[in-house]
Each structure stands twice: as structure tokens, then as C-alpha cells.
Amino acid sequence: MATYDGFDAPRGGLDGRLGLIIGGVCALGFLICLWIVVSALMERGHAIYNTTSDGVMWGVPIVTYDFFMLLSVGVAAIASLSLAFGIGLFRNVVGHALWMALACVTAGGVALFLELGYPLRAMLMILPSFAIASPLWWKVLFVFIYVPVLVALLWREQHGAHREQDWLGVTLFLTAVLLALTSGSVYGAMSMRPFWFGGHVQVAFLVESAVAGFALAMLLSGGNASETGRVASRFFGFALGLHLAMVASRTLTGLYANLEGLQVWEKTITQPWIYIEVILCIALPLAILASKLRENNALLAAAGVLALIGLYIGHYEFIVGGQLAPLFKGAWVPGLIPYTPSFHEWMLAPLSAFLVGAVYFIGSGLMRLDPVSTREG
Amino acid sequence: MPKWGMVIDLEKCTGCQACSTACAMENDRLPGESWQDVLYHTEGAYPNVKMKWLPRPCMQCENPSCVSVCPTKATYKTDDGVVLVDWDKCIGCKYCMVACPYGVRFYSDERPLIEPDLKAIFPGDERRTWNPPYAMPEHVQNAKLGIGIQPKGVVSKCTFCYHKISQAPAGVADLDEDIPETKEYTPACVRVCPPKARYFGDLDNPESNVNRLIAEKGGVRLKEETGNKPKVYYLAGGGSPVVPGQRSART
Prior knowledge:
Radius of gyration of chain B: 18 Å
CATH architecture of chain B: 2-Layer Sandwich
CATH topology of chain A: Formate dehydrogenase/DMSO reductase fold
Number of domains of chain A: 1
Structural class of chain A: mainly alpha
Oligomer: heterodimer
Shape of chain B: globular
Number of strands of chain B: 9
Order of helices and strands of chain B: EHEEHEEHEHEHHEHE
CATH class of chain A: Mainly Alpha
Low-confidence stretches of chain A: 1-13
CATH class of chain B: Alpha Beta
Number of helices of chain A: 12
């Protein structure tokens, strides 16, 4: 196993055959989910989703897309700690992080394409339109920079040409941060939807991407098995603490407010999901990370996975919650709009997760994602 | 260039929905896909309950959030201030629907809002979501202006009957069914309104009836706090238009 300047090597990607087997199983799962969704889409169009013009317009497909986008920029930012800032401690996880970032952005893109009315037209028409007033235009611009930069850096890593503190790494860091911020702006700029509106949303997205990034970096570098994993787990705990503070402050502020639209918080606290998110997916991982339990690698991995699940729940509550207060469509509702995702909407979540698994594990089995030792050369 | 605007007198409106029906017939709307809707709600609690309503077309805002957020500029504002959708550019992302404070937009590829599903009864083709036997004449339909029957996977909305008002004689102050020269250019919802609760004209023309009504009767706009500056004004006897307080009631 190659090592890098004194740090023990990461064990994120499963070696050879096992990685390929897991990747193959994930690929099979992805293909089954894709067949279920695409065949229904071809037969019944977007009527297979429970999103409607007089109800919730952005449902689980957008939640899934946004979630994987956030994972991608989070883990890419971790890779850029080495590539942009020369923090050698994270050198070991660069290859895995770049590949995982590419897998996640692909999975998010697939979920989005299965939601859009005209996905190919979107690819061709958004940038030339120069609709600079739209946060979505900026988001697409950054994606069009981000993905090629990811590919270029990955190619460079594959060819043993690792470089630190160079412009490509800096570009990756900047686009990752800007993508997290513009993802927040898509919602935060909506003054007509008080549940979303506010400058804090962009910051919340940035913190969430940091949580995702450090959690994935910890998982990819094998947790306690490597120094990188150990350090990543400390940063993961710090980011998770910030995330908890933001969730708590938004919830409490919402409960004290009487502005139209913010009554969603009252519904939120009557549902079990926020408690699952806060207690099981934030507080419990924090407890593990803050105690001696962190020495147990399985518990550390569980903390990472739970935090990621919590981010998905939080994204669902945020994106759907922002649309539950009816505007002026149809018969006015004396309360909140009911929304239950359809079977095909839910299928997009495993579809994207399987795709990430397939791309990452097959890639880690076939490619050299671990760093080539400078001493070996 | 005129700045077209509408005035709706809530003290005259009877909630008969003739406007909704005329709009649906004029613009080939599906049931429930009411570009011109009348929203009903109740106020008070039994036994002191009142039924209220609010007619709601697209507000054709001066500063429309739907135009700002559209990533392909498919939603745009014409020189005469009407907000339209270019269906050849729309990608169906629904951001405009999320951003519209008035909920006036509809996505064409979803479950029917009201049964029966006319899209299944009159199936469409590549260009249109459905083909009703009473469709608008072919030469009037225009995908670039969002007029007619839309294709699948795009967003549609009220156009102020742009195919009519854009043909109006230059310099007219009002488009009114009672003025023979402007009758054919008057939006369908205005033309059929039985109690004559709707007025349509040039907001930039000081001589227009809409300007006079807004000034004399204290025309107000909905959700001013969003900064969208609608060009649809409501006359509500000097007060605010009735926006249901119970909508946000804790449930």
C-alpha cells in the first residue's frame, strides 16, 4: 500500500474484488430503480409524482438532487484542503474524495433530470441565456466549472501528478463553496416564502456541506484506521455542532414568529422526523464523537452515516416545508397543504444512492485512488 | 407603448366565475388549470359564517419575481409590460411557480387537477398536451408567447389575452366591450363579466378609466410587501382586498 509522507494510508475504497462486487450490486439496484421510474415516466409522464401546480411543486426529486449536490461539494471541498491549501493531512483522501464528489454530483444530476420537463434543453439553454438575476443560472454556471475541474484533478491524480496549492485546486475549492452558497440562495432569496427567506440559509447550506464533507472524508479514510480519518472525525464533530446550533436557532425562531408561512414550524415539531433528525442523526453522533466511543470504528462509521441521513431528512423538511403554506392557488386552504411523496418519487432516493455506490466502488476497484508515495517514486 | 393593467371591483364581483369559464374557452385551459381563477373561502365560525371570494388572474407584475428567477429567460416581459412564457425555452424546472407570490402558474405534465382527465380523452401530440375539438385557431396559437395549448413539461399562465390586446389600435386608453372599436381586443375575462366588475386599460394614460378608478376608489394591490408591483388593482370600498385571515390559522 502506498503511503504519503509518514501518514498511514486511507482504507476508504474496498480493494479489488470486494469493491467490484459491492459496486456491481449497487449498479444492479440502480438499474432496477431506473427501470421502474423511467418506464413509469414514459407511460404516464410526471403525473407519477405527487407534486402539483396547486400544492407542493418541488418534492422528493428536488430534495434528492439537492442532497447529493451538497454531499458532492462538501467532499470536494475536503479534497481541496490538500489541493488548494496544501494541508498534507488530507492528501491521503484526495483521490477518494474527488471520485466520491463526481459520483454524488452524477447521482444528483440523474435525480434532477428525472424531474425536469426538458433536461437536455436545460443543459443547452441555461448558460447562453445569461439570466444572471436567477440563482439557478449561477448554480449551473458553477456546476459547468466544477465538474470539469473535478475530472481534470482526478485525471491528474490518476497519473501521479499530484500538485498542491495550484490554481486548479483553488478553483475546485471556490466552486464548491460557491455552489453550496448558491444552492442556499435558490431558497433564501424567495421573499414570498418566509420559511425559506433569509441570508442565513446560504450559511446553513455551507455548514451542511461541511458536515457532509467531513463525514464522508472520515468514512473514506477508514475512521480511526488512519490519521486523516481521526482528524476528519474531529472536524466532523465541530461542523455537526454548528449544524445543531443552526437547526435549533431556526426552529426556535420559527416557533416564536407569527409571520404567514412560518406556522410550518408548528407542524414540524408535531412530526417525528425532526426528532429523528435532531436526536438520532445529530445529537447521538455528537455524543459518540465527543466521548470515548469514538475509539470504536463501527460507532464512528455509524455516526457518519446517521449524520448523512439526518441531512436528507433536514433537506426534505426544509424544501417541502417551504411550500406547505398555500399561496393563492385554487381553493384557499385553512391550514397547510398535505403532501405525501409517491412511490416513484421515493424511488429516486435509492436510485441515486445506488448510483453513488456503483460509481464509487467500481471506480475505487478499477482506479488508483490512493496516493502514490513520494518516497516510492 | 401602453402599460396594460386591470382593475377588479370587489364590491361588484358576484363570484359567478364567468371570467374563469371565458378564459378557459378562449385559451383552451384544462379543468382546474384556471389561468383566471376565483378563490373561495369562508370567514368566521358557525353560525356567523360568511362566504367570500377573490378573482385572481396573473398580476402581470412590474417587477415580476418569476422573470427574475427563470434560468433560461423563458419567462419574460414584453415592451408593453405583459409577462409571457416562451414554451420553446421553458425547461420545466418550476422555479417560477415556486417564486410567484400569487400562485398563478401551472405545470403541464402532472396529475389532472380535476377529473375527468381531458388529456386522456383528447390525447395530445409532440407539440401539445391535449387536442380539444374546440381549440383556438392554429394561426393564433404561438408557443413563443405562451398562447394556446402548451407542450408537455412546460409552465403556462394567464397572458392578459395577449393575442387580443397586442392587436389593439395604438393610443387607446381603455379596452372595453362597450366601446365598439375595442370590443374585439378586450381580454375574455373582462369582456364577459356580467356585473362589469373588471376594467382594462393603459396605466400610463392619465385619461384611462383604470387610472381614474384606481385614483377615485383607492385601488390596492395584493401582497405589496413582496415588491412585485402587480398591475392588477382591486377596489374594495377603500379597504384592503379580502385576504382570508384563517388561511394562516393554527391547525
